[in-house]
Amino acid sequence: MVLTALGLGAFLAATPSLVTALQLGGAAYLAYLAWTTWRTAAAPVEIATTPTRAFRKGFLVNIANPKIALFFTAFLPQFLGDAEKNPTLQLLLLGFLLQSLGLLTDLAIGCAAGAVRDRLLHRPRPRTLLNHLAATTYATLGVTLLAKTLR
Fold this sequence. Notes:
InterPro entries: LeuE-type. By secondary structure, this protein is mostly helical. It has helices at about 1-5, 10-15, 15-40, 50-65, 65-75, 85-120, 125-150.
């Protein structure tokens, strides 16, 4: 959100080779996630974590998520008011509002998912099936991204 307000979209528009490099890196990362998820699908689950560690992991995932950056650079600026009235502040306020609403939604989903997780992840068959489904999804997304990038 802050990077968008400071001109990330304009910078990426001016450097298409950087966008291509980011897309190729994203496709490679998705392939890595697919491979490791499939390979460890039947491994024992380690659920024990501290709230601080869970927060840090979630924060890093969100910071590294290209979907978030794409949303803030391509979609959110369309909702700015008069461009002469401090667009940076408008982007920061809209981004803060979006993040606040997202936090509330994610907390509700996280609580519900935690209850389901405890039931599913200790049973080998559903855990393996869900991990294989996740690995297949990662691989499909990676191949799709690679195909679109190389076009």
